[in-house]
Fold this sequence. Notes:
single chain, six-stranded mixed β-sheet, DNA mismatch repair proteins mutS family domain-containing protein, DNA_mismatch_repair_MutS_C, disordered C terminus, DNA damage, DNA-binding
Amino acid sequence: MLWWKERMESCRKPSTVQLIKRLTYSNLLGLDVNLKSGSLKEGTLNREILQFKSTFPREVLLCRVGDFYEALGIDACILVEYAGLNPFGGLRTDSIPRAGCPVVNLRQTLDDLTRNGYSVCIVEEVQGPTQARSRKDRFISGHAHPGSPYVFGLVGADHDLDFPEPMPVVGISRSAKGYCIISVLETMKTYSTDDGLTEEALVTKLRTGTCRWGEFGEGGLLWGECRARHYEWLDGNPMNELLSKVKELYGLDDEVTFRNITVTSENRPHPIHLGTATQIEVCRLMGNVRCSIPEFTCVSSAKLVKLLELREANHIEFCKIKSVLDEILQMYKNPELLEILKLLMDPTWVATGLKIDFDKLVSECEWTSTRIGEIISLDVESDQQISSYPNIPSEFFEDMESSWKGRIKRIHLEEAFEEVEKAAAALSLAVSQDFLPIISRIKASTAPLGGPKGEILYAREHEAVWFKGKRFTPAVWAGTPGEVQIKQLKAAVDSKGRKVGEEWFTTVKVEDALTRYHEAGAEATAGVLELLRTLSAELQSKINILVFASMLLVIAKALFAHDVEPSDVAGAMKIIGLSPYWFDVAQGSAVQNTVDMQSLLLLTGPNGGGKSSLLRSICAASLLGICGLMVPAESAFIPHFDSIMLHMKSYDSPADGKSSFQMEMSEIRSVISGATSRSLVLVDEICRGTETAKGTCIAGSIVETLDAIGCLGIVSTHLHGIFDLPLTTNHTVYKAMATENVDGLPKPTWKLIDGICKESLAFETAQREGIPETIIQRAEELYSSVYTKDMLSERSEAKLERFTLNTNVNGSNESSHRCNGNSKSEFYAEGKSATPMEILQEEVESAVTIVVQKKLIELYKKKNLSEFPEVKCVAIAAREQPPPSTIGSSSVYVMLMPDRKLYVGETDDLEGRIRAHRSKKGMDNASFIYFLVPGKSLACQLETLLVNQLPNQGFQLTNQADGKHRNFGTSSISLESVSAHR
Length: 982
């Protein structure tokens, strides 16, 4: 058996690190002596650190020295090379290399090192008072490595953590059944096996997710794959030996257990083959969903397991965990989503290796969600407001209390909360009694410039509230107001007893009150952290449920992101806003196209017009779509293809004795013989390698054959004579890549349009690529002399083509989406009374329905239509999003703000508009109602109507002015297409 640990860089090129190693070799020898003697220039390391350094010589050691983390020798060189830090000290040749970072930048430094494949040992100073020049004790506080970043202290932090995907330890063994691959994840404390693999399948699995491919040569694929990796041979039982190696590698105790998440090959569902993702029942059900759907909170399983294991999950993580559980329960309680939830159980089992009963999943989610809700404060409660007193700067209390208030429910630490409030009141009283009389005396002074100054300020560095002033001491003591308080002042000092400055003062009473307040705050902080850590320990027994639930939502979110509306034409493919996958759409360099393919397309266009790019983009989008993955387009409907065949340029094969045309015909033969009515065939520049006349006839015959087969596809060509052939085709459609005239010259637009393009831009392309002007001119003369008659006979046709090519006919009439669902959410518990926002929502729904219904009836009467539409609204509660059926449809929506005001709008991108509204401050829990309409013009009319009518019914609008400057004409849509929206 052989094994290795995946790293970001398995082998490194000679770099600055090696150079510095050679230059400082003598200095490093001296460093080794210092390490062995237990002393360093900046302090002393404990015995445990020396043992760690000798055991793991390749690890980076970061030692806390005051407000910095420092490294020496080779470790310092690594910090400079891979973390971008500057070296400490001067340029003396005999100095030891030193580098480091401030305490606040530790996480960034660890991210840089672990991302480059290094592990780091973090050494902290023992906190507490020490005598001058005395030895400081240190201890190893944590160990960060590529699969497990530094998370110690996160439980008390008020921010999230970017957690990388765990990196496996991989083992390979061979038996009579074939190869077996074993993967161990130290972060997740899991292992899995996959056996019965061929050598090709094994190498494919090893390459997945890696950044370097092996050099292949003698010995087979596996031999080549292993050459580029650091591996070792192990004897004995493969599983036991590999787990022992992992424990040794990560310094784990023998008692640590790993969970087996192997999915047995006998009972697991068949793997998702090409096209299966569009056939499974869940996709069909998703296409019929009309109710609001959850936000699908995605939580990294590795991060979740690691934080709970180390008891470092903070309130942010618990809120995310509760959101995951609540969204599972939301799907369970909704009849439309319940069947989808059940169907997602098996894919989640295959993805996680955890076989969990459906009823157990629901019951465990309910218990865990309830338990988190009992401990964690989900909203800012009125009894957890930050302390506030007029005589003390608000920033002081904000900094002191924001790190623990609002994390857990007050009922669990009532005494600690009360003590903090009492201490804050005592501090305010002390400040009022000792500082305010002095402030009043200064304000009463009418001295000119240079008179007394003074104010109460928050010294953030020292976490204190002090008096800062100058020239306030009276020259003559006359018993006037404030003199007693001035005599009580003393110089303010820091934690080490050093005087802060000449202008900072305090009193004994204020210092005692500050001490009491800090002690009360420290006790409350410790209590909050202990409750969070206790909850983490309690939820460790639910890790399997949490991992399963989070993965289920990831799968659900990916599937719901697809618009699975049934197509109007069976077997048709429609891709809207298709972009070449190698371009960045955000940079604006990609030209988007709409491909509506219901039969074979014969594509023409100039050189450099985008024919080959379009074929590659369609092929990639089709492959991604039928595999259930995201496609580089705004929306897409891709049917189930039994095969996708793409033929690009052919090259000759001297070894086989075949020319490029022979190779092309061989590949076309395979395409024709394998194509069916359910195939996608893409052929680029057919028959380019032979004589034009006969090649044109062969191409025409191939087009006829593919047309008879009835497959979808595109055949691109420069053989314009194909349009003069008497072809017998029933379904083939002519398409072209458009051009436009710029300064009298044709230029490609890379847009797909209807029609035929016989302009090749061959002369322009050759000239642009550096062909001499004399050659281009002679070519134009030869072309004119031979093809003059053809050019004259086709002049009128060319004018028509030029008009067609310069006209954008990409617009397509989108069929209106029908929205059938509940008018409001049904997730409330039985017997629960309606909240004010729920009542407001029902009133708004009723008013909107009446206003819009009346308007549509008026429009229908003008068209003399007998059947009137019935309008019903769909509600989107907080933490919900619209269903996929709204994609690409025009809609009118009303946002219900927390202050009970309304905002009316219209959009063709409802999901994006809701996300934009909720991104604003205080709007994250806003709810919405909406209804779909057939066309943007009608949506604008109804939006204006609601903006003008809702205030008359007693509702407050924030955008009421929008109704005064909008004047839309009549809708151009057919009112017969307006359907009842539910």
